[in-house]
């Protein structure tokens, strides 16, 4: 049945990759950010979710990702082969509950994934080069 907004009341959220496809080079997508977790000693990292750099120090991602995020890598080949060569890495210590680095939409609901928007604030503003401001319209 349809709910008040016309949407089906029994819809179950499913993760999806929009567009799919093969990435030939990490340099094709300079605003892609690998949001990562790490082992206890911080020596080994793995991708948890992706994000988009939308301002010199702001990454847009999904709110459900934030509790596991400990680190952000930008401009790395890790998105292709797990190598982590090149790029910039930021230690975000404290995980998704650290208000200095993480924010979720005020109406985010982890049960339904409504308003599943999260922001990661990097500890440093990046120099995106002349006339570049991050991903978005015209980027």
UniProtKB/TrEMBL annotation:
Specify the Peptidase S1 domain's residue ranges: 17-139
Recorded hits in InterPro entries, A to Z, give: Peptidase_S1, Peptidase_S1_PA, Peptidase_S1_PA_chymotrypsin, Peptidase_S1A, Trypsin_dom, TRYPSIN_HIS
Question: Which biological process terms from the Gene Ontology are attached to this UniProt entry?
Answer: proteolysis
Keyword Ribosomal protein assigned: no
Q: Which SUPFAM superfamilies match?
A: Trypsin-like serine proteases
- Coiled-coil regions in this chain? none
Q: Which Gene3D superfamilies match?
A: Trypsin-like serine proteases
Q: Which GO terms describe its molecular function?
A: serine-type endopeptidase activity
Fetch the Pfam families from UniProt: Trypsin
- Keywords carried by this UniProt record: Disulfide bond, Glycoprotein, Virulence
Family indicated by similarity: Belongs to the peptidase S1 family.
Protein name (Swiss-Prot/TrEMBL): Peptidase S1 domain-containing protein
């Amino acid at each position: 049945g349809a709910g008040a907004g016309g949407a089906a009341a029994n819809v179950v959220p499913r993760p999806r990759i929009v567009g799919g496809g093969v990435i030939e080079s990490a340099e094709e997508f300079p605003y892609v950010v690998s949001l990562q977790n790490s082992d206890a000693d911080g020596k080994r990292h793995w991708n948890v979710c992706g994000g988009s750099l939308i301002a010199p120090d702001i990454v847009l991602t999904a709110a459900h990702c934030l509790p596991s995020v400990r680190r952000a890598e930008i401009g790395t080949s890790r998105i292709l082969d797990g190598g982590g060569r090149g790029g910039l890495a930021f230690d975000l210590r404290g995980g998704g509950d650290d208000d200095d680095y993480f924010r979720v939409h005020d109406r985010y609901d982890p049960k339904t994934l409504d308003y599943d928007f999260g922001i990661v604030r990097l500890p440093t503003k990046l120099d995106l080069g002349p006339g570049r401001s991050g991903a978005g319209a015209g980027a």
